[in-house]
Amino acid sequence: MNIKSPTAEHAAYPSLADKRVLVTGGGAGIGEALVEAFARQGAHVLFIDILDVPSQTLVQRLAAKAAHAPIYRHCDLRDIDAIRRTIAQLEKEVGGVDVLINNAANDDRHRVNDVTPEYWDERIAINLRHLFFAAQAVVPGMRRAGGGAIINLGSISWHLGLADLVLYQTAKAGIEGLTRGLARDLGPDNIRVNTIVPGNVQTPRQQQWYTAEEEKEIVSAQCLKARIQPEDVAALALFLASDDARMCTAQQYFVDAGWR
Ligand SMILES: NC(=O)c1ccc[n+]([C@@H]2O[C@H](COP(=O)([O-])OP(=O)(O)OC[C@H]3O[C@@H](n4cnc5c(N)ncnc54)[C@H](O)[C@@H]3O)[C@@H](O)[C@H]2O)c1
After folding, report:
1. pLDDT in tens, 232-256
2. Residue nearest (by alpha carbon) to ligand 1 atom 1
3. Which of 25, 32, 51, 198 pairs with 71 at a CA distance of 20 to 30 A?
4. Is the pTM value of this prediction over 0.70?
5. Are residues 121 and 73 in contact, defined by beta-carbon separation less than 8 angstroms?
């Protein structure tokens, strides 16, 4: 059976119109779909990346059709001072952040024997540390606004125990703990914190890791027999960021086509 791909017939969330939504790693893959999905809802999208040309191209592509042209800023998320400066500058421009989507990561493969203390620190810096410091930077503004939503991107990888990804999986397991701890501490301020756990999503980067044959194997292990698209992940993020999810916090939500 053919499963229909995501189309323009998606849900509209009136509560997302004019919301200030900050997406990390918004220049490619799932992040790009997040930027586009929130822009289509009339949100004011701000995004951070290190890929300047694709990010600027994305801004240009969406500027004409979105209520608010997305704003892109170059920021290497491994640099905490740069995160703080960039978010402070963006908040100055738009007045605050209502929704933070901690999406950026890097799933480079590695062998146990090759991991050095420096490589460990670098992998944790790109896959875990910045999520906390970006949240810390936006929380005061969310408190002043009476609430907010933080969505962290986890991964199915550590739930499956995949090969050659120990540090990435360690970080992604940590993200689910981070989510639950932040949700507890920030709940009294009406700030909701959740994790989205994608299965294998058909992004350009994933295509460097999996051959067509391996993609078929993934689909055959899923309950649903189609490749997950970035828009499928964005659809859940829209719901979790919206007021429709006002009582959803501290949880993990899978978009994995039933892979486990
Ligand atoms: N694609 C999948 O199958 C899949 C599966 C499970 C989880 N995820 C998670 O979903 C999220 C998005 O994944 P994706 O597949 O779209 O990844 P991707 O590699 O296609 O995109 C990640 C984005 O983050 C940016 N980024 C990387 N390092 C950065 C840095 N130091 N500073 C700023 N930006 C940086 C990249 O430039 C890129 O635009 C990640 O958290 C990933 O772990 C993806």
Report:
1. 999 999 999 999 999 999 999 999 9
2. 201
3. 198
4. yes
5. no
